[in-house]
């Protein structure tokens, strides 16, 4: 069960600068049974001597690491993403501890094992962490509790703590489903299980929604970022399915068509 639960999890490093950190991260990933490393615009060579020296027997993870230019590309195909941060970007942002937040990345892989699923755990650059714009791509946020005197952890250490918590979560005994006595003690299964929408499908919806809201004057350029953050939080909480995303995008498409039709009618009259 544990191997199956951890297999879909990606460790995503945004602009890592230190090959020693990248190598150490590859090693701890292998220690904890994680294998999918994604590097977003890396500022170092993940295959140089220092990285390989720190990786020791995890050179295969370095060699298999995927390199992409942007965070959305790193999250393609994922349904869930958690970002790590040392600060709340707004007063409404809920920061969870690794032990309480990270098991959420594994839930669908055990409950919906027959469905395609992928999740991501995102870490920012060593010198600045994740920006507000980068945090927008996550649905939940984790902060590692530490001393307020020096709360910022080394990148490799932070990844190690989170990988350990994921490993621990994956090795817990599975929770038994409730039993229905009226059906001869057969387990109750939730009806009509649908896989959650991928993060790139969600992002497409957010971009279409933003464009339409700007067009109709609900959003203004100077307020767009803050307003869209609230929409993202709202929809991220609902765990939309692919079918629901298609329905919502269909509504936006129809509204856009209606506005264009009305504009053409006004021009011709």
Structural summary, described in words:
The chain has 2 domains: 2-170, SPOUT methyltransferase, trefoil knot domain (Alpha/beta knot); 199-268, Orthogonal Bundle (Helicase, Ruva Protein, domain 3). The chain is built from 12 helices and 9 strands. It has helices spanning 2-6, 19-31, 49-55, 59-64, 71-74, 98-101, 107-111, 132-135, 155-170, 199-215, 224-238, 242-268, and strands spanning 9-14, 36-40, 66-68, 80-84, 95-96, 119-123, 140-142, 179-180, 186-187. The strands form 2 sheets. The chain has a 7-stranded parallel beta sheet. Strands 8-9 form a two-stranded antiparallel ribbon. β8 (179-180) and β9 form a beta hairpin. The chain is elongated, with a radius of gyration of 21 Å. Mean pLDDT is 86; it is low at 173-192.
Biggest sheet character: 7 strands, parallel
Q: What's the CATH class of the largest domain, please?
A: Alpha Beta
Overall number of domains: 2
- From the helix content, strand content and strand pairing, which structural class follows? alpha/beta
Range of helix content: 40-55%
Which fold name corresponds to the CATH topology of the largest domain? Alpha/beta knot
Average pLDDT works out at 86
Count of DSSP-assigned helices: 12
- Helix and strand string, N-terminal first? HEHEHHEHEEHHEHEHEEHHH
CATH homology superfamily name of the largest domain: SPOUT methyltransferase, trefoil knot domain
Tell the overall outline: elongated
The low-confidence parts are 173-192
Give the strand line-up of the largest sheet.
3-2-1-6-4-7-5
**Gyration radius over CA:** 21 Å
Using DSSP, what is the number of strands?
Answer: 9
